[in-house]
Each structure stands twice: as structure tokens, then as C-alpha cells.
Amino acid sequence: MRSMEQVPTGAPKMAEPTEKLNLPDPTEVARETLRRLAMRRIAPTPDNYQTLYEEIVGPTASAAAAGTATATSVLAGLAMDLTLHHPALAASAEALKQALRASDWAQCRKQVGQIVLQLKPGGGSGPGQIDTLGLLRELLVKTLEFGVATQLSHNPTLFEKTQRLAAAVREANSIAGLREAASGLKSMWIDVDLHVSHTHDQQETLRRLLLLLVENIGELLDDDTWLRGQLDVVQTVITGPLKIQALLEAEKRLKEVIYKQSLVKHGLREATATLKATMTSFVSHMSDAVAANDDYQQTIAAHIERISRTEDVLELNRILENLLDETRSAQSDSRRVHAQMIEERDAAQHAANHIKQLELELAQMSALVREDPMTHSLNRRGLDDEFAREASRAERFNTPFSIAVLDVDNFKALNDRRGHNTGDEALIHLVKVAKEELRLSDHIARIGGEEFLIILPNTPVAEAVQIVTRLQRSLTKKYFLDNNERVLITFSAGVAERRAGETQEALIARADSAMYEAKHSGKNRVCVAPDALPQAAG
Ligand SMILES: Nc1nc2c(ncn2[C@@H]2O[C@H](COP(=O)(O)OP(=O)(O)OP(=O)(O)O)[C@@H](O)[C@H]2O)c(=O)[nH]1
Question: Among 101, 210, 319, 471, which one has the highest count of C-beta atoms within 10 angstroms of its own C-beta?
């Protein structure tokens, strides 16, 4: 709410009246005076009442002073209007009021002249400019309040600073005031910039910590631990640039795998428990059967002895009947046990099959997390598995085995020019073309953001160079389309043949160094690795 205004008082007396007064009805004048007080939101002090009254009827002091008072009240009214409606002219209006109070007519003339100049369009703060200025100021205030401050709500200091600055801009009603606000704005941007880079550093540190944690947990796990595949997904996501889409994808995949694994693990636990129970029961029935058989043997032996000792036919008849009874009961025992044993064997077989099925499902699920979710090439884990398999096969059959490290050329520029999503699509395209060009026995793995590794089993280095060169050529034919525009993707590659007993790490290091040579010698080419790097030697 605007504060109540004070109307200038003390109308000066002038020597000669300048115009004749035509006084209206005093009641009407009083009503009009009160209306103007209310309209202009002016404090109803006697002085203000007097000033407005005189503004309507002219000064009342004396007829001689009437002209002077009229001029004075008209000018005072003008000054008041300017103060109320043109804040940018407030200083000139105040100077005019002071000149009126001091009856300094020369000064009055000068101030009125200046006000006229300022009110002229293009005259420093003319009405057109005042509006533009006001609009711009309001725009800046809104930007600060709704655009900047809301983004900084998590940082109370910066939030308050922005709000204070918005208030200062809103109140700045002169060029000088706006200049001051502008210097506040500059200092605020410096703080925001510092804050943003601090947040970015924090994010980077957290990411490194997470990566370290994931790597260390990975070290502690057995090869076939469930967690490893899941950790690989997290690792892939946090190694590349943090993108909300990739993070959401990784989260979704992890949740799915964890949920399915919990279901399968539960089923596996139940099936194992059933098998154990069945086996226990099977063994106990076997021992029952053996025991029953034993009892029968012993009874037969006892009856045979009784038979050998007796000569009495009646006794023999009784023994025979006993014997038949025993035999019948032994037979039915044995049939029951046999039937039970068959039933239990079937149940055990069923449980074992179920377990096999569940294990198969688990293997399929862990294959899921051997893949890079974006390009569907192998991830680090998939690469490790395939490398180990191919290396041992090459040793067993004494066959050559090569790898190629590929790094997309000028990928940063492609991202910068066409956006990150197009960059992603380009990587997906590269893997698709590579899969089409390579043999079924070859494998492609993503080992970095825009870096890939191809495993070429049963391939000497010269042939590996040809394969990779052919892939380069096919990329010029199967070009990548971005918004129907052909984009040529090229890569530099380093090829190395595995030496007997060479570790995966050492072989990749050699291929990597050849890839760097390809980069440094002009890109879009293939270089062959030197025989051995110092760290790979021995
Ligand atoms: N779109 C996209 N960009 C990625 C991904 N991973 C890494 N990058 C970006 O790839 C770029 C690689 O840049 P650099 O290492 O300078 O390589 P380059 O621009 O290809 O330059 P040269 O290798 O010398 O030809 C970086 O800007 C990374 O942010 C990804 O998954 N998707």
C-alpha cells in the first residue's frame, strides 16, 4: 500500500493578482475537497485540506493574494501529481515544492522547465521511456522471484539474496537506483556461478566415490555372484556422462533383475528343500526295506532251524503256516516300500529338473546384465567372460587370437553440434553395423563412452586389420541418419594379436597404444600394436 502523501503548504503571497476568481458553492467545494483527499489517498491534515481546497477554489487568503495563491496551488498540485504518478520525476517535483515554499520563482521556472524537458519523448525519462523502464524492471523482478529464486530454494542464503535483490529492483525508481541494483545482480551471478560449480564438484566427487565403492564391492565378490551383473549396470551408467534417461534405465533394469532373482531364488530354495526331504525319506525307506528283509531272513533262518529240529508234522504244518504268513507280510512290505521308493525317486527327479530349469533362468538373467543397455554390445563383464573363453580356446588349439580397440573420432564435436541423444544413436548405429559386418564368433564390447573392443578369435593380426578396415568402409556406405541427414561416423583403431600367456590387460594396453597412434597420425585409420609394451613384457 502506498503511504499517505503530504500536500505542500504555506502558499506564498504575490504582489499582484493575475486572474479574477469565480467562487462555487462552499458545500460543493468542501465535498470535492474531501473526494480528492480520498482519491489521492492523502492524509486529511488541515494543511492538506487547505491545499486541496485552494486547488479547487483558488487561494482564499485575500483577493490581492488570490492570483499568487492560485498559481502556487496549481504548481503544488502539479508537483503532487508528478510525485504520485511519475516516480522517476520525484526529485524534480520535490525541488519544485521547495522552490514554491521559498517563493523562489526563478527556481520554480527552472524546475518546471526541467520537468517539461524530462516529460518530452526522448527527453531522458519521458512517459514512453518511463513505461518501458517500468516494464523491464517488472520483468527483471519476476525473473528474479519466479525464475532464479525458486531454482535456489535449496540454498537459503542465495535464495534470500535473490529475494532482497528483487525487492531492491522493484523499489529502484531512478536510473541511479537501477544501476545500484545492477551491481547487486552482478554480485549475485558470481555467487550463483560459484554455487553451481561447487554443486558440480560435489556431484563429481560423489560419482567417483560411488564408482570406487562399486569397484571395491566387485573385487570382493565371487565370479558367479548375483550381485556382479547388477553392479556392472551401475558401473556402466556412472562411468559415462550422467544422464537422467540412462540412470532411470539402469534403475529399472536393476529393479527387474532384483525382483526376478528374488522370485527365482525363492523357488530354488523351495525346490532344494523338497529334494532334500525326498532324499531323506528315500534313504529311510531303503533302510526300512533292508531291515524288513533282514527280519525276514532271520525269521526264515529260525523257521529252518525249527524245521530241522522237529519231527512233528503238526509242528511242521504250524511252521509252514507261520512261514507263509511271514513271507506274505514280507512281500507286501517289500511291495509297499518298492512303490514308495519309485514315488520318491520320481519326486526327486522332478525337483532336480525344477532346479535345473531355475538355474537356466538364472543364467539367462545374468546374461542380461552382461550387456551394455544402450548399445547392446557386451559390457565389461561380458568382455571378461568372452575374453577368458577365447583366450583359453586359443591356447588349447594353438590358434591366433586378435583384438581391436576402436575410438569414435571427433565424438565430442558430434555431441556438441547435434546433441547428446544423437551421439547415443550414433553409438547404437556403430554397434549395429559392426554386428552385421563381423563373424558370429566375433564379439564387440563397449569399454568406455565412445570406445569399443572387438574380440576376433582365430584371427592373425594381418587379417584383423583387414576386418577392421572393412568395418570402416562399411560405415561409409551404411551411414548414420540424423533427421534424414547423412552423418559419417569414423573411428580410429589399434589392433593387436595376443601373445602366448599374455594377460587381457596387457593385450588391451598394446591395442590401446596402437589406437592412440592412429589418432595422432590423422584419425580414421587402423594401426598395428607394437610387439610388446614395457608393462606387457615378461
Ligand atoms: N552421446 C554420448 N556421448 C558420450 C557418451 N560417452 C562419452 N561421451 C562423450 O564423448 C566425448 C568424447 O570426447 P573426446 O574424448 O574429447 O573424444 P573425441 O571428441 O572423439 O576426440 P578424438 O577421440 O580425439 O577424435 C565426450 O564429450 C563425452 O562426453 C555416451 O554414452 N553418449
Answer: 471
